[in-house]
Amino acid sequence: MLRGCTVARAKTADRGYGSAHQKLREQWRPKVEAGLVDCARCQQPIDPDGPWDLGHTDDRTGYTGPECRHCNRAAGGRNGAAVTNGKRVELRHSRRW
Ligand SMILES: [Zn+2]
Predict the structure, then answer these.
(1) Which candidate, 96, 74, 97, places its Cα nearest to that of 87?
(2) 5 C-alpha vs ligand 1 centroid, how far in Å?
(3) How is 40-91 classified by DSSP, letter by letter?
(4) How far apart are the CA of 67 and the centre of ligand 1, in A?
(5) Which of 37, 50, 80, 81 is most deeply buried (CB count within 10 A of its CB)?
(6) pLDDT tens digits, residue range 15-68?
(7) How many angstroms separate the alpha carbon of residue 50 from the centre of ligand 1?
(8) Which pTM was predicted?
(9) Centroid of ligand 1 to alpha carbon of 45 (angstroms)
(10) Rounded CA gap, 97 and 89, in Å?
C-alpha cells in the first residue's frame, strides 16, 4: 500500500518534532542501544541505557544525529536566559602568592 504525500506535514513540522523526527529516531535507536553512536555535540559515546535525543542543527534545517540528553537540552536552552555552564566566575584578585 502506498501512502501519497497527502499527509499534512506543515503543522507538526513547524515545531521541529514531526513524524519524520520520530521515524528518524527509530532508525537510530538500534545503533544507539548497541552503544555504537557518539553524541553529535560532545563526541562522547552515548550511554545505551541513558536518555538521548535526536538533535537538530542550530538553525533547525536538519538533524545532527543522536545526542545525549543533557547536550540536547543545553543546546535547546541556549537561546533562552538559562545558561548553566556559561556562568562567569570572576576571579577576584584571589591570587595570593
Ligand atoms: Zn553529548
Answers:
(1) 74
(2) 35
(3) TTT-PBPPTTS-EEEEEPTTSSSEEEEEEHHHHHHHHTTTSS--STT-----
(4) 5
(5) 37
(6) 556 888 899 999 999 999 999 999 999 999 999 999 999 998 888 899 999 999
(7) 11
(8) 0.58
(9) 8
(10) 20
Q: Which of 21, 86, 87, 73 is nearest to 42 (CA)?
A: 73
Task: Output the nine-digit C-alpha cell for 95.
Answer: 591570587
Give 96 Cα–ligand 1 centroid separation in angstroms. 37
Inter-residue contact 4 to 24 (CB < 8 Å): no
CB 41 within 8 A of CB 32: no
pLDDT of residue 6: 53
Residues forming a β-bridge with 10: none
Distance 7 CA to ligand 1 centre (A): 33
Extract the C-alpha cell encoding 22: 520520530
Please give the average per-residue pLDDT across 74-97, as a whole number. Answer: 56
Rounded-to-integer distance, Cα 71 and Cα 55, Å = 9
- Give the mean pLDDT of 78-83: 47
